[in-house]
Specification:
The chain has 628 residues and is mainly α. The chain has 2 domains: 260 residues, MetI-like fold (Orthogonal Bundle), CATH 1.10.3720; 263 residues, MetI-like fold. 76% of the residues lie in helices and 1% in strands. The strands form 2 sheets. The chain has a two-stranded antiparallel sheet. A two-stranded antiparallel ribbon has the order 3-4. It is globular and about 70 Å long.
């Protein structure tokens, strides 16, 4: 059993190794033919021209612009919402808001993209009187909304984990609640908030489907660079758009794998940075690190004078971002004025007034995020629910998806999700059992955990490319059900490992010791004593994995799915239809299918909400039992 669990545990290392090897294998010919430096620094990406151009600068600039814009929106709103949930909300309100934020995280990216394409792009086009709303601004807003759950959840955990005696000591010394939050709690949680921002950046950089649908996909550098109404193309968007039509083995094909390698390296650097920050947090919490960690954070906060402490940062950023589209000077003047106003307010207003102002701003920002979630759900359900009929759920599509139903897509999604979970669940549970029960913390376990975290942070489009080159081409599976199952299993494997590991760690050591004292073997103890109380946590991880697998588009678009197929697959080597891909094609390539677009989005959203809702119910039930 020890050997079996060890093999399961190194599956993450094997996964990362194979992804790197096969991406590099197909990227090296492009690096050799084009040249690594010209490839990285070229200012034009135009593979279809008479003389093909393969320069990554427009794609990198596009990625950085939408990511920066997303963070300008998501960071202040995310931190404000985390403060509200952790410090200002009543227990009842907290029980409502936390699941709502988690549901925001569970909405599939293709549904966000559909909402952005149908509502956000048209709204920006009308309000700004521009020819097209597909732009940096649209991509930034949408990615900002998608990054919010990550930033809010991690920041809220960091704020809630600040020792209570720090807050009580500050209040005992006469500080107001806001002074305690801004000068004690936030500095103490600064490392966790930093990790949340880094993870949010990784979420934005790795997104594929949403940016394809709202950014315009023009491989250009905006002129001027701060023109947020210009269309752009990102690294992930390039892979999603061009990979399906490129000739295998061509220079263009190898150049796209070069793009994937650059994207993977960027995300690996981001995720390693987040891991280092989280390691520092864990070290300071367990007392293993330097005792000056908290005080160094306090010293850093003392240097954050002016706008970062006294000005409504979220409003400043949003207003400045909007004014940048008109001119750089307007944004600068806006920020300076708000800075001056903030300092004057701090100097001449009493402490209670300042606290009321800030609490009002934080409450308003929390309300905005909640209204965004409500509006997205309302728009999709109000427009799609009337068309979700029994025939729609039980018939095959007709007329390029404009008529008929989505029955093959529902069944195909079920096949993909079931197969991926049947592969990932045994491997993930086995890996967690090995890490918790069969070995102590050492160099190998640190490598396994790091590989698992890196696998978890790998963009979904990279999984799709790996599945295409390894499963579809190298192993000869073709576009097939089995290729999609394995690709999705590899993607959700880290979730299963980490949730199962946490569930096993929650079992008290005294129970294990009692089992050993009665003469049970290691495996008997694990199977009969440790696993039964861990089942709720394991089920939660499995449900979360099912939700993620059901809502993903990029990993299966090159490995498993087709748009139109009236019959169900007969074997594992047949392609299938899937709800996320069907919605993507309907929204981007089939005019006149508005009713079926919304109806498909409703079915996919209900499916994922039910899955994530089940995970939340199980977790809350388990938490109540633990508290009792």
């Amino acid at each position: 059993m020890h050997t079996l669990w060890f093999v399961c545990a190194i599956s993450s290392i094997i996964g990362i190794f194979f992804i790197l090897i096969f991406l590099l294998y197909d990227a090296v010919p492009a690096f050799l033919d084009i040249g690594l430096i010209p490839f990285l620094t070229g200012e034009r990406w135009d593979p279809a021209s008479v003389i093909p151009k393969y320069g990554l600068i427009p794609l990198i600039v596009g990625t950085l612009l939408v990511t920066l814009g997303a963070m300008i929106f998501a960071v202040p709103f995310g931190i404000a919402c985390a403060i509200y949930i952790a410090e200002l909300a009543s227990p009842r309100m907290r029980r409502i808001l936390k699941p709502a934020i988690e549901l925001l995280a569970g909405i599939p990216s293709v549904v966000y993209g559909f909402f952005g394409l149908v509502i956000l792009v048209k709204f920006l086009q009308d309000i700004l009187s521009v020819p097209s709303g597909e732009s940096v601004l649209a991509g930034s807003i949408l990615l900002g909304i998608m990054s919010l759950p990550t930033i809010i959840s991690v920041s809220e955990d960091a704020i809630s984990s600040v020792p209570r005696y720090l807050k009580e000591g500050s209040l005992a010394l006469g500080a107001t609640h806001w002074q305690t939050i801004s000068h004690v709690i936030i500095p103490a949680a600064l490392s966790g908030i930093t990790a949340a921002i880094i993870l949010g950046i990784g979420r934005a950089v790795g997104e594929t489907m949403a940016v394809i649908m709202v950014t315009g996909n023009a491989a250009i550098i905006p002129e001027p660079i701060w023109n947020i109404l210009s269309p752009v193309r990102t690294l992930t968007g390039t892979l999603g758009i061009e990979m399906g039509e490129v000739a295998v083995g061509s220079l263009h094909y190898h150049a796209l794998f070069g793009v994937a390698v650059v994207l993977l390296l960027i995300t690996l650097i981001i995720n390693l940075s987040a891991l280092m920050v989280m390691k520092r947090i864990k070290s300071s919490q367990t007392g293993g690190g330097s005792k000056k960690g908290l005080f160094s954070d306090l010293m850093i906060n003392d240097r954050l004078s002016g706008i970062t402490q006294y000005t409504p940062l979220g409003l400043t950023a949003l207003l400045g971002l909007a004014l940048l589209s008109i001119g750089m000077w307007y944004g600068a003047v806006c920020i300076v004025l708000l800075y001056i106003i903030g300092r004057l307010v701090d100097r001449y207003c009493i402490r209670q007034t300042i606290q009321k102002i800030w609490f009002s701003i934080i409450g308003l920002m929390m309300a905005v995020v909640t209204l965004i979630l409500i509006f997205i759900l309302y728009d999709i359900f109000s427009n799609g629910l009337p068309y979700v009929t029994l025939d729609f759920l039980t018939q095959a599509p007709r007329n390029l998806g404009r008529g008929g139903g989505i029955y093959p897509a529902i069944i195909g999604t079920f096949y993909l999700v079931t197969g991926s979970i049947l592969i990932a669940l045994p491997l993930g549970i086995g890996a967690a059992i090995y890490l918790v029960e069969y070995t102590k913390e050492n160099f190998l376990t640190r490598i396994i955990r790091t590989a698992t975290d890196l696998l978890n942070g790998t963009p979904s489009i990279v999984f799709g490319l790996f599945g295409f080159t390894f499963l579809v081409l190298f192993l000869g599976f073709g576009i097939s059900l089995i290729a999609g199952m394995v690709t999705l299993a590899l993607m959700v494997l880290p979730t299963v490992i980490r949730t199962t590991e946490e569930a096993l760690k929650g079992v008290p050591d005294s129970i294990r010791e009692g089992s050993y004292a009665l003469g049970a073997t290691k495996w008997q103890t694990v199977r009969r004593v440790v696993l039964p109380p861990s089942i709720p946590g394991i089920i939660t991880g499995a449900i979360l994995s099912i939700g993620r697998a059901a809502g993903e588009t990029a990993p299966i678009m090159f490995t498993a799915v087709v748009f139109m197929q009236r019959r169900l697959p007969d074997s594992f080597l047949d392609p299938v239809m899937a709800l996320p891909y069907h919605l993507f094609i309907l929204a981007t390539n089939v005019p006149g299918a508005r009713n079926n677009q919304y109806a498909t989005a409703v079915v996919l959203l209900v499916l994922v909400i039910l899955i994530y809702g089940g995970a939340i119910v199980i977790r809350n039930h388990y938490d109540k039992k633990v508290r009792w």
